[in-house]
Amino acid sequence: MGGLLGRTRFAAIDDVSFSLEAARPEIFAIIGESGSGKTTLARMILNTLAPSKGIIRFLGEDISRFRGRREQLQFMRKVQPIFQNPFEAFNPLKRVDRYLFASAYHFAGHHGRAGREAAADEALKKVGLSLAEVKGRFPHELSGGQLQRAAIARALISSPALIVADEPVSMVDASLRMSIVNLFKTLRDELRVSIIYITHDLATAYYISDRVLIMQKGKVVETGPARQVLSNPQHPYTVLLRESILSPDDVDKSHLAGAA
Amino acid sequence: MDVALSVRDLRAYYLTSHFGVEREVRAVDDITLSVEKKEIYGIAGESSCGKSTFIRTIAAAIRPPLRVLGGSIRYSFLDRDLYDLDERALTEMRWKHLSCILQGSMNVLNPVRRVRESFKDFASPHMGLARSVFFDAVKAHLNRLRLSPTVLSAFPHELSGGMRQRVAIALATVCRPEFIIADEPTTALDVVVQKDVLALILEMQREIGSSMIFVTHDLTVHANISNRLGIMYAGRLVEEGSTRDILRDPMHPYTRHLIASLPRIGDVTPKKGLSGAPPSLADPPSGCRFHPRCPLAMDICRQAHPELTALAPGRRVACYAVSPLVQPAHEAAAARKATKADKSAAFLQ
Ligand SMILES: Nc1ncnc2c1ncn2[C@@H]1O[C@H](COP(=O)(O)OP(=O)(O)OP(=O)(O)O)[C@@H](O)[C@H]1O
Ligand code: SF4
Ligand SMILES: [Mg+2]
Predict the structure, then answer these.
(1) Which ipTM did the prediction report?
(2) Domains of chain A in sequence order
(3) CA B96–ligand 1 middle distance (angstroms)
């Protein structure tokens, strides 16, 4: 049982199985329709939602058995989320730096103020922000992209083994998107972190993922090595996805139906 | 050239104070641009460069700590500056002449009320129709957008993201406004739904003949929908041109980087994000705000901010390295003043 995430079967979404190897960190992309159950899947992996059928094992252990606060904290330290919409993930009445400090306190053992601030600043710098820019600010006082970067920084504080990132780059521009996905690569290659990368962005999935899983209506329709699946899709839905990708080259002829 | 919106020297800052420390976030700084009738003018730029702030400002949707500190905003359907309108005139204008489609659309669709109520609140006062006739018109409109009238009795959260955006489009177009403002309307959607929603926006814009400002950081969306493109960096407009020219032949170093960083399926060459931290708008770099991250930065770049200069018809760029015609903004302003003075002097002779 070397599985980081082993033999996962979910019935709420229909019979999804995959496993990631702890010994071989990877970026595992999950692509699918809006509403196809990707976020549900993410929440199950994070153990915030119980599957109605099936088991999720983390390092060999059934995560639904983690009951006590200590066990839960231990799990959360190793498996960190990055959510899709940072405006929903952050409480509008709570200052953003509080989230970072709380992670530094609970997951990284920084009990003093200086240590907490240093940990927060270091994590923020990895995503192109700094504590000076974030300190004291409420979520609505940051732009969508800044808030998303703060969410990623928060996830990095505990040095997790697995990051479950649900649409982490949908709010940010191409350049920052590349910085973030390159950061994922570094996390994988240097810190041996595995990443479940849930996205609509097929181009970055192609660029960084080792494997990809395509979902439609809660079902897996295709899975395999990312570059192979995305450059030579087999299932009609994957083909449709490929055909719907917009490209800068469309400027010569708009790709939208009916456009001149 | 028929202008639908003309923005001059617009400046809007967030003025906050935390524990007695004053902070001024210069999110929109001296922006001048105009949008022609029936045109889709796209705005792109990195996260937190001020795109949404610009949108709030031209939509008269500002509230503290955001403040408009200067400049003018003229719409063709108004007889005066946007900020000279009183609350009543603004209410009269919204939805009828100027409407918005925003990301997630939760801000227009009230989460605790059925969709029908939003139509009643926003559109009904402008259409001057009896209730039943009004809802017939709304249903016909929904139908045109290939939406079932049953969405009217749904709560926003019961609809999928794509559906919600269609409803937001219906709401924004039902009064056939002259001007539509869209801020990241498809950013949260998957590629298949995104394509549908964009096609719908384009279709409605053409049918009504509205002008539009379309904000998104996604250049592939602009390639498909925007006629012209303005690129913002750190609160300023740094380049403007036809979408085709900008994508095919970007001039400003920031724009060049942005376009070079676009990933494509089949392309495995390593792509890099911009090095260096994004600028803080509370304390922006001196001179050209891009200089700390610019591979071409020279001395003058650190000293004076370059004027957004017309280099070819329809093409404006703010970068010293691109052309010797680009002058420091303060000199360009002085020169303009001088020519004006010359002209008045000549007139008196
Ligand atoms: N209420 C506020 N108080 C203080 N600063 C604010 C407030 N709202 C936004 N800002 C700041 O203004 C700047 C511009 O934000 P804006 O939301 O306009 O960016 P944006 O270009 O729309 O970014 P994104 O692409 O991430 O949505 C950011 O630095 C942001 O932190
Ligand atoms: S003005 Fe100077 S710093 Fe600014 S973009 Fe041009 S070369 Fe770079
Ligand atoms: Mg924005």
Answers:
(1) 0.85
(2) 19-49+67-259 (3.40.50.300)
(3) 28
